[in-house]
TrEMBL record:
GO terms for cellular component: cytoplasm
UniProt keyword tRNA-binding present: no
Organism field: Xanthobacter autotrophicus (strain ATCC BAA-1158 / Py2)
Stretches assigned to the J domain: 3-68
Bias-annotated ranges (Gly residues): 83-93
Protein name per Swiss-Prot or TrEMBL: Chaperone DnaJ domain protein
Chain positions covered by the region annotation Disordered: 52-93
Length: 317
């Protein structure tokens, strides 16, 4: 992972406004929807969101500047120079010691709970992992002593588009330890939803169990829609003639385009509400889509139109 400052293209003295501007500009440029033919678009967009998450948070930014966390927001492990010849072994991709048949695992989250499948041979299919949520890790052994400390937990922010949150999707997440995790995003998933993946964190440096990975859902910037709580806003161009005489215009939504009836004598800036076309709500429904009309003049100058406008101006005076 590159330096967050390099990812956003800002200096280490950049203020919050500079960071925000840089993020918005790059988010529009790197959004996967705008780079559908680029197989690495999702990775670059995820890197951008991780960098922004660190630099927009004053505490995380200070921790990164002090060298307490790395470019992915994970705490840096202390050096154990006197323990087994200098601490845990690391391979080219991070900690060594993983079997080839555990490199890929898949998780899904839905009404039936959490389930996992792996690339191991044998029975195949999914095995129930209902204990993936809510169970703490014991640190005392049965004999009363202390068990080895588990590995560090890791926090991962997973950006999803508005469409993916509303309709559901499968997203692949690359972990620093080299694993690739497929996470199924259920339809109606809201921003801030946090998942615990037990045992998918950092390995223990002292022979204990691995830590956990926590995946938090975030909404990615959208090239068309602007978020307003659970509602969405967008502008739609309406020709002058259609605004005066009335017409039907095509309006994009999260589930495909719909036709919006524009009444005759619609002024520019008028807003129409399309109910239930917004983002998932806490109650299980959806917000609304607010469509603002933007009047558009003809591309070519029209002498008759100019004459009419002059006449109307004279009458108004």
């Amino acid at each position: 992972m590159r330096d967050p400052y390099d990812v956003l293209g800002v200096s280490k003295t950049a203020d919050e406004a500079e960071i925000k501007r840089a993020y918005r500009k790059l988010a529009k440029k790197l959004h996967p929807d705008a780079n559908a033919s680029d197989p690495k678009a999702q990775d670059r967009f995820a890197e951008l969101n991780t960098a922004h998450e660190i630099l927009e948070d004053k505490e995380k930014r200070a921790q990164y500047d002090r060298g307490e966390i790395d470019a992915e927001g994970k705490p840096k492990a202390p050096e154990f120079t006197g323990f087994r010849g200098g601490g845990p072994r690391r391979g080219p991709g991070g900690f060594s010691g993983y079997d080839g048949d555990t490199i890929f695992e898949s998780f899904s989250f839905g009404p039936e709970g959490a389930r996992r499948s792996s690339g191991r041979g044998g029975g195949g299919g999914f095995e129930d992992i209902g204990d993936i949520f809510g169970f703490g890790r014991q640190r005392r052994s049965a004999g009363g002593g202390f068990a080895p400390q588990p590995g560090a937990d890791m926090e991962i922010t997973l950006p999803v588009s508005f469409e993916e949150a509303a309709e559901g999707a499968s997203k692949r997440v690359g972990l620093p330890n080299g694993k690739q995790i497929d996470i199924k995003i259920a339809a109606g998933t809201r921003e801030g939803h946090r998942m615990r993946l037990k045992g998918q964190g950092e390995p223990s440096a002292m022979g204990g169990p691995p830590g956990d990975a926590y995946v938090t859902i975030s909404y990615a910037p959208h090239p068309i829609f602007e978020r307003d709580g659970d509602d969405l806003r967008q502008n739609v161009d309406v020709a002058l003639a259609d605004a005066v005489l009335g017409a039907k215009v095509r309006v994009p939504t999260l589930k495909g385009a719909v036709e919006l009836a524009i009444p005759a004598w619609t002024s520019g800036g008028r807003t129409f509400r399309l109910r239930g076309k917004g983002l998932p709500t806490a109650s299980g429904g959806h917000g609304d889509l607010l469509v603002r009309t933007n009047l558009v003049l003809p591309k070519d100058k029209d002498g008759d139109l100019e004459a009419l406008m002059k006449k109307l101006r004279e009458q108004a005076d």
